[in-house]
Design brief:
This protein has helices at 18-21, 34-39, 57-71, 82-85, 95-110, 126-129, 138-153, 167-176, 187-211, 233-256, 261-269, 278-284, 331-343, 369-387, 430-441, and strands at 3-5, 11-15, 75-79, 114-120, 160-165, 216-222, 226-228, 290-294, 299-303, 312-314, 348-353, 361-362, 365-366, 392-398, 417-420, 425-428, 443-445. The chain is α/β, with parallel strands linked by helices. The N and C termini lie close together (6 Å). The structure holds beta-D-fucopyranose.
């Protein structure tokens, strides 16, 4: 029997995000966000759904913490809605918003559940979008002011802070491809947004160090290891481009203060050049404590001369896919962690990993075997990475409960807890009981 027992103090958590679970979008002074606006735009979201109610976590959070306690989590990752703190993104603050998170954080701490807080999980205050959003450099400054207030408010607490969740997704899906809020479609804009997001991260890190906050600070990136469709030099080159575009585009500036060169070539060829200063890169690369990794699947690519931008094409494997159409490939997590440890050495948290499957509630039970298999195999690979020298400190399942899955609305269920949206009843899936055992044993036996 193989045993996969994790180091003492390893964090076992689940993750959520404000817009995906909170609801109460018009309560207690919360300002409008780009996701409110986008989800109320006809045709933007599956079946025109929105996050107005979501999981009603804003009212049910005490019950949700009880579920966390039952599962035995020692950490919980969630995000603060910037527009509950500054309804207009800047200027006058909303004390009711601060109090909501204060109570949540105090309660978590009193239950020995470590808060892991994302400051920005895509819900930009609409008032700032009206001034250009992430295309406007000032947004980075306003973000750092909001971050500073949070660091000051929770200065004495042992919190893990995450500046941004997946800036790649904010930039490219929000401003490049237009499938996420604010729904803009301009590749040049995506690169500008990406740069300003990186700057926002750096300025927040600066605010963190200046304030002398007790906790730790890092960033969460969506990273995918890339494999060639064949051994040809063309496909190997495609791997380099894809890797630069999705992984290194954000990793390199944060760790080494510069963008990958092959991306510059693409930018220049397409005349997407934008303004930046060397001072920006000094701020972007200020030291952080850890890197947060969201891992769902890998990429397989081949060369494609028809593709206007990158000249690459994604290829599908025969392996099982989740409801999102994402290949189940646990070994990719191992490969990714080993590579990060080599090229970007820092403590790592897996801040999201999980899967959407077609869950069926039957007689009050959800037998989500596929999700259990998915989690088990990824946890094993996380263990293997630690065994082989990676400084991995925690693992967070996406998600605690089913929620509003962005453009897919409520059609994709990622939770280990089932949410009946008509009653807001929470029902623990079999995977929640599986995860409870993992946490009790600090790992698994197989
Ligand atoms: C990640 C997001 C998270 C959720 C999962 C499925 O990209 O950070 O909010 O949507 O994907």
């Amino acid at each position: 029997m193989a045993r996969y027992i994790f180091p003492k103090g390893f964090l076992w958590g689940t993750a959520t995000a404000s817009y995906q679970i909170e609801g109460a979008t018009n309560e207690d002074g919360r300002g409008e966000t780009i996701w409110d606006r986008f989800s109320h735009t006809p045709g933007a979201i599956y079946q025109n759904q929105n996050g107005d109610l979501a999981c009603d976590h804003y009212h049910l959070w005490r019950e949700d913490i009880k579920i966390m306690e039952f599962i035995g989590l020692n950490a919980y990752r969630f995000s603060i809605a910037w527009s509950r703190i500054f309804p207009e993104g800047k200027g006058s603050l909303n004390i009711k918003g601060i109090n909501f998170y204060k109570e949540l954080i105090d309660t978590l701490l009193s239950k020995n559940i470590k808060p892991v807080i994302t400051l920005y999980h895509w819900d930009l205050p609409q008032a700032l979008e009206d001034k250009g959003g992430w295309l406007n450099k000032d947004t980075a400054k306003y973000f750092s002011e909001y971050a500073y207030l949070m660091f000051k408010t929770f200065k004495e607490e042992d919190i893990i802070w995450i500046t941004l969740n997946e800036p790649w997704v904010s930039a490219f899906l929000g401003y490049g491809f237009g499938v996420h809020a604010p729904g803009k479609k301009d590749m040049k804009g995506a690169f500008i947004a990406g740069h300003n997001l990186l700057l926002a991260h750096g300025l927040a890190v600066q605010a963190f160090w200046e304030n002398g906050t007790k906790g730790k600070i890092g960033i969460t990136l969506n990273l995918s290891p890339v494999y060639p469709a064949s051994d040809t030099p063309e496909d190997k080159e495609a791997v380099q481009i894809q890797d630069s575009f999705t992984n290194r585009w954000f990793l390199d500036p944060i760790f080494y203060g510069k963008y990958p060169e092959d991306i510059w070539r693409i930018i220049e060829k397409n005349r997407w050049n934008f303004n930046y200063s060397s001072e920006d890169f000094k701020i972007i690369s200020l030291p952080i404590d850890f890197i947060g990794v969201n891992y769902y699947t890998r990429a397989i690519v081949k060369k494609d001369s028809e593709n206007p931008y990158w000249r690459i094409k994604h290829v599908s494997s025969e392996n099982e896919k989740t409801e999102m159409g994402w290949e189940v490939y646990p070994k990719g997590l191992y490969d990714l962690l080993i590579r990060l440890n080599r090229d970007y050495p820092k403590p790592i948290y897996i801040t999201e990993n999980g899967a959407a499957f077609n869950d069926v509630l039957d007689g009050g039970r959800v037998k989500d075997e596929k999700r259990i298999d998915y989690l088990r195999e990824h946890i094993k690979e996380a263990y293997n990475a630690i065994r082989d020298g990676v400084d991995l400190r925690g693992y967070f399942v996406w998600s605690l409960m089913d929620n509003f899955e962005w453009a897919h609305g409520y059609s994709k269920r990622f939770g280990i807890v089932y949410v009946d949206y008509s009653t807001q009843k929470r029902i623990l899936k079999d995977s929640a009981y599986f995860y409870k055992r993992v946490i009790e044993n600090n790992g698994l036996e197989d």
